[in-house]
Amino acid sequence: MSKYKIGDKVRVISNINHHFFNIGDIITLVEKLGTDGWDCQNEGREWSLSENEFESVNVSSEVNIFEYPKYQKYVLKEELKKMS
């Protein structure tokens, strides 16, 4: 059984299945697909992600901004400011 449910807000942490969300985007789970897949929405965009591509926004995690491309560092820094 999944630890997530429809309507949960999650943060995108990877792009394994070639979705078009940005790393760090907060998205909403809208439909369960199979054992670990989800249809997700954000600002009118909808893509399918697996559970290993996102994390709960309620879970505190350390983010190493150096693991992400330079253009995403600003987004991650802003997200970290919001969390503090």
Task: Give an overview of the whole structure.
It contains one helix and five strands; from the N terminus they run βββββα. It has one helix at residues 70-83; strands spanning 9-12, 26-33, 37-42, 45-50, 54-56. Strands 4-3-2-1-5 form a five-stranded antiparallel β-sheet, with no helix packed on it. The radius of gyration is 13 Å and the shape is globular. It starts with 8 loop residues before the first strand and ends with a helix.
Secondary structure: number of strands:
5
- Low-pLDDT runs of 5+ residues are none
**Which structural class do you get from the secondary structure elements?**
alpha+beta
The shape, in one word, is: globular
Largest sheet: 5 strands, antiparallel
User: How many helical elements?
Assistant: 1
What sequence of helices (H) and strands (E) makes up the elements? EEEEEH
Mean pLDDT: 80
Biggest sheet, strands in spatial order?
4-3-2-1-5
Beta-strand content estimate: 25-35%
Considering DSSP H and I runs of 4 or more, what fraction of the residues is helical? 10-25%
Whole-angstrom Rg = 13 Å
Amino- and carboxy-terminal Cα gap: 32 Å
Write a brief caption for the model.
With 84 residues, the protein is an alpha+beta fold.
